[in-house]
């Protein structure tokens, strides 16, 4: 894996020089000691965790803007999305994202979970991808314990129908209770089934559906402020429309699928395209791991 952006002024340029025998000898400008940031090598989980730290965890002048309160939204909460797309914009192949993924993508997927307080996911993704409870991963479990946080993020499932199999390990065997977010008028017997399975039910909407902005606020009220959504595209479309999506970690897979799979964000178009700024790009085996942050909008205090 290599960092393609941002590169500091001190970043060496990997320009192979010829040895007298004609064999490449690597960088002409490698600093003494320590790996080059553009060197192609496997990154440790700690390095990836540092690269993907939530903004409030990044001290110092290079931290960039921290989370701020938008109207009706608690301060200090940050909603990041992690999605993978083919070159031609498909968010899945035959209903699964796995064919678009790679070992490095799954490594970053695990790191993002390791950093998060809650993983917010739409019910269709839970059903299609066969979601299981989050598992404790080193070194995150130790780091989280030191911070007084549970070993894994809570999985927070968004559903109106509650057409979910509550006998699955996702609900019966998680290390921390799975949260089910739904509307106040969700089917009563399904609500009872969710609670009986051990899920924490949160009502975040007046009808059967949730209000996406209330999802963020309700989780923040429970101390879950480092939020990660893994989609799917329909849920992400609602977060984007509600203006609560702070960051998009987009993995671009070097694959073309054609077909009619949804894009990573699906739903009614926004009134105005929302502007994001590039925060970082990593590369591994032709995959680009990009991270974009939403730009502060004039007239409000969103980032
Ligand atoms: N490329 C990627 O990184 C990626 C990531 C995730 C998923 N995917 C793919 O995306 C597909 C699934 O995504 P999707 O867009 O079809 O569905 P989705 O966003 O995962 O889930 C949609 C479901 O979430 C619930 N929901 C959404 N908004 C709601 C609201 N406001 N209130 C209450 N419930 C709400 C509803 O569940 P109920 O029907 O239960 O009411 C709805 O049917 C799969 O093929 C998956 O493989 C790809």
Automatic annotation (TrEMBL):
Domain of life: Bacteria
UniProt entry keywords in alphabetical sequence: NADP, Oxidoreductase
One Gene Ontology term of the molecular function aspect: 5-amino-6-(5-phosphoribosylamino)uracil reductase activity
Pfam family, one: RibD_C
Low complexity compositional bias, start-end: 8-21
Gene Ontology biological process terms, A to Z: riboflavin biosynthetic process
Keyword S-adenosyl-L-methionine found: no
Disordered: annotated span: 1-42, 55-74
Pathway: Cofactor biosynthesis; riboflavin biosynthesis
Keyword Oxidoreductase: yes
Annotated TM spans: none
The Bacterial bifunctional deaminase-reductase C-terminal domain, residue ranges: 78-282
Record protein name field: Bacterial bifunctional deaminase-reductase C-terminal domain-containing protein
Organism field: Streptomyces sparsogenes DSM 40356
High-level lineage: Bacteria, Bacillati, Actinomycetota, Actinomycetes, Kitasatosporales
């Amino acid at each position: 894996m290599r960092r393609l952006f941002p590169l500091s002024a001190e970043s060496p340029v990997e320009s192979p020089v010829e040895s007298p025998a004609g064999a490449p000898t690597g960088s002409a400008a490698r600093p003494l000691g320590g790996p080059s940031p553009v060197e192609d090598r496997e990154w440790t989980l700690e390095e990836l965790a540092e690269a993907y730290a939530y903004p409030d965890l990044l001290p110092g002048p290079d931290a960039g803007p921290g989370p701020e309160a938008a109207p009706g939204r608690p301060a200090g909460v940050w909603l990041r999305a992690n999605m993978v797309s083919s070159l031609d914009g498909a968010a899945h192949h035959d209903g699964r994202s796995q064919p678009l993924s790679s070992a490095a993508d799954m490594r970053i997927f695990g790191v993002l979970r390791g950093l998060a307080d809650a993983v917010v996911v739409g019910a269709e993704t839970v059903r299609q991808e066969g979601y299981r409870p989050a598992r404790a991963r080193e070194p995150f479990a130790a780091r989280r314990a030191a911070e007084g946080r549970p070993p894994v993020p809570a999985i927070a499932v968004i559903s109106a129908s509650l057409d979910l199999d509550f006998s699955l390990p996702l609900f019966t065997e998680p290390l921390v209770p799975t949260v089910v977010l739904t509307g106040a008028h969700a089917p009563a017997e399904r609500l009872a089934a969710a609670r009986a399975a051990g899920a924490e039910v949160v009502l975040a909407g007046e009808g059967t559906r949730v209000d996406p902005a209330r999802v963020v606020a309700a989780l923040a009220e429970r101390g879950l402020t480092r939020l990660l959504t893994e989609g799917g595209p329909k849920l992400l479309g609602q977060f984007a429309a509600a203006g609560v999506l702070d960051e998009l970690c987009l993995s671009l897979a070097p694959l073309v699928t054609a077909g009619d799979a949804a894009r990573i964000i699906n739903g009614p178009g926004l009134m105005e395209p929302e502007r994001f700024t590039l925060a970082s790009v990593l590369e591994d085996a032709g995959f680009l791991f990009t991270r974009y942050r939403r730009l502060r909008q004039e007239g409000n205090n969103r980032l």
